[in-house]
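Hey, quick one: can you model this chain's 3D structure?
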Amino acid sequence: MDGSILGAWADLSNSFSHVVGVRDGEHAVKEKKDDGKVIWTLEACKKDARKYLTRNQWRIGSPSAYVTANKRKWAGECCAHMKAKPTVWTADLCKLDALKYQTRTQWQKASPSAYQAARRNGLVADCCAHMPSDMRCSNVKMKLDVLLE
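Sure thing. Here's the predicted structure for all 149 residues.
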């Protein structure tokens, strides 16, 4: 074969490797066109998304990958490793959560988001109705006992 043909083939091969983002056996995170525009692939989006714990972090940290994944309906697959959306604390969910605890303090420490939601919506008294009254006021009683001694 002619050396010029092999040389031309090698140049084209190198150019192609650069265009698709493959060089020396390594896969780039994203592909690039000749005009410099980035093309996000599914694998590239998944790899990029793995750097983040939540969708919002990914949206802020890598907006082009995030937008591409959403437009191409890949977001579910790319975000499978991420935390689920935070719970929306309804009155019923707050009451169910409070049933796990014997005191307000236990509930507040173990499930602060539920407690704060109940507090914000004026539901703490309802949510804590199952708690024995002496348990709900034990801290106040202990302080009174100390003062009376």
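One thing worth noting: Residues 3-20 form the longest helix (18 residues).
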